[in-house]
């Protein structure tokens, strides 16, 4: 991972999501997203679960050494519609629907996300924690959380075109992750900005014929992350 202060990137990533959803009414929280079957409130609940997991992980020290880093962590999440992913998608949607109103998810997010950031800020970045059956350095854990938050921030914008995009520091972390999932020799097409890169690297947008021509054999690697 780069020398980016990972707690600062996570703070920016989570504040970015809050900027999108914080003032939405119950109607707008039921707008569609780029995630199949998920409304804004459903997707926010999924990211909320990540913030809760961050709190647990940061209070779950491990002796080390790490078995994955900020890039190799993602190799277990292969693209495609597996049964586990479909079950989680359905569970998240039903869980979000259990709130009295969609704005209830926003209130819980607004309490939980800052707490996760505070825990990340005081954690030793060189320490080790455990989450999802893996041991990671704290800095790498925070990078994975920022990467997921940035990608889902972009997912939220599908039907909210006037909402603010992810911030530059958090976006840089997500881009660095995608670069790590590519081969060292691969170069992304020059015409892609960072957000287009992230959307195409995660299969949110299809590769065009020109993209495939510029990528060559590397096009077969896409999507890099599901």
TrEMBL record:
UniProt GO MF annotations: metal ion binding
Superkingdom of the organism of origin: Bacteria
Residue ranges constituting the Mycothiol-dependent maleylpyruvate isomerase metal-binding domain according to the UniProt record: 11-156
Transmembrane portions of the chain: none
Pfam families xrefs: MDMPI_N
Family matches, as InterPro entries: DinB/YfiT-like, MDMPI_metal-binding
Protein known as: TIGR03083 family protein
